[in-house]
Amino acid sequence: MSLIQASEVVTGGLSRPNPADVRLDKSLVAPHIDDAEYRWVVDWLGEDFYTVLTAEKGTSSAFSTPQYQALWDLHLKSLCGFAVMYEAAPFMTMQAGTNGLYYIKNEYGENIQVKGLTFYQDTLRQRIEVKQKRMKDWLCASAANIPYFQSSAIGCPETDCGCVDTSGNYRDWE
After folding, report:
1. Backbone torsion region of residue 155, taken as left when φ is above 0, otherwise alpha when ψ lies between -120 and 50, otherwise beta
2. Are the C-beta atoms of residues 53 and 37 closer than 8 Å to each other?
3. What's the rounded Cα separation, in Å, for the pair 155 and 138?
């Protein structure tokens, strides 16, 4: 089970969690969700808390716990969306077949090839790292109000420095 669903990765409008085109086929991102969350999300939440969140959310698009919903809306949905795109991008750019490894070509655009893919993934990685840090700061500042969250599991400071406004406004700890 995972936090984000393929349909949420490619959602459009205000709830769009990443830079994917809304016409992106969700079957292109679905196989990469578990790996993306394991690589980019689990350690930043703590494995036990991640398990609690996946069970709470299930396959719905919302949480029943207000604190979990706030975490999802402010940080997790976007982090998961960017992480999935990071993991899926190479497989959407090129594929292996009986004729070897080849770039995917279509009638609607030109393939960006390896140089463009590298730039895209580097940009996604930078965003992911910022999103991870912001989420950790928010979690550490909000730890007392979040059921089942163990701040020690993600390395929160022992005392609250008061640096993060839990309403979602971010200020750096420095």
Report:
1. left
2. no
3. 13
- Whether 12 and 66 have beta carbons less than 8 Å apart is answered as no
99 Cβ contact partners less than 8 Å away, ≥ 6 residues apart: none
Q: How far apart, in whole angstroms, are the C-alpha atoms of residue 47 and residue 119?
A: 31
Q: Evaluate whether 85 touches 20 at the Cβ level (below 8 Å).
A: yes
Please state whether 11 falls in left (phi above 0), alpha (psi between -120 and 50) or beta: beta
Cβ(3)–Cβ(54) under 8 Å? yes
Per residue in 56-97, pLDDT tens?
998 888 899 999 999 999 999 999 999 999 999 998 888 788
Q: Locate the DSSP E strands across 45-140.
A: 94-97, 100-103
Q: Facing residues of 86 across strands? A: none
- CA-based nearest residue to 94, from 115, 118, 108, 114: 114
- Tell me phi and psi for residue 43, to 5 degrees: -65, -30
Distance (Å, whole) CA 39 – CA 63: 23
111 pLDDT tier (thresholds 50, 70, 90): low
